[in-house]
Specification:
alpha/beta; 7 helices; 4 strands
Length: 182
């Protein structure tokens, strides 16, 4: 009779454990927010446009509109050049999935620094942090400085809010490829 009394609670506990396991396996897993870092000079951190008009904010909005749970943070280097962007790339926050970066091209050229010389080093530093690097060349997207894509008379190489939207739209498919289809 004693065995009979123990059997009831054991069956109940077993049923509860099995039910919880079934629910855990059959429920859709909550995905974690995908962390993306925008790394670069003043165009990255919106020095000449509002924060909401800058390409990192536009990129985040475009990804969210496509149903991605993302957070785009900005790691900007004031008047940064390629060497400073490279240094900043060595301290990407843990858990970052993608780093979209520029090389501070205009500032680099002003200082006699070859931005291309730092691009591979920056990519390696980002990969060493466990993230996927995506290089963005503003001139290849919006055109050369001195055109209407750039703020007229700005000596610090800033482009317009419309150009920020173009940059975000251009980077979008590359970021989706890096984070994977939904």
């Amino acid at each position: 009779m004693r065995a009979h009394k123990l059997r009831g609670p054991l069956v109940f506990v077993s049923a509860v454990v099995l039910s919880a396991a079934w629910l855990a396996l059959s429920s859709p897993a909550r995905a974690e927010t995908i962390r993306i870092v925008a790394l670069g000079a003043s165009n990255t951190y919106a020095q000449a446009v509002s924060t909401s008009e800058a390409w990192p904010a536009k990129l985040e909005a475009m990804l969210k509109a496509k149903g991605y749970d993302v957070s785009v943070s900005v790691k900007g280097v004031t008047r940064g050049d390629a060497s400073q962007v490279y240094e900043a790339a060595q301290s990407i926050p843990s858990g970052t999935k993608v780093v979209v970066f520029d090389s501070g091209g205009g500032n680099s050229r002003d200082r006699g620094i070859d931005p291309a010389a730092y691009r591979a080093k920056t990519m390696q530093a980002i990969k060493a942090q466990g993230a996927t690097p995506i290089f963005v060349s503003y001139k290849s997207i919006v055109g050369p400085e001195g055109t209407s894509a750039w703020i007229a008379g700005d000596p610090h190489h800033h482009f317009t809010a419309a150009s920020h939207t173009r940059v975000a739209a251009s980077v979008l498919p590359r970021v989706i490829a890096a984070i994977g289809k939904k």
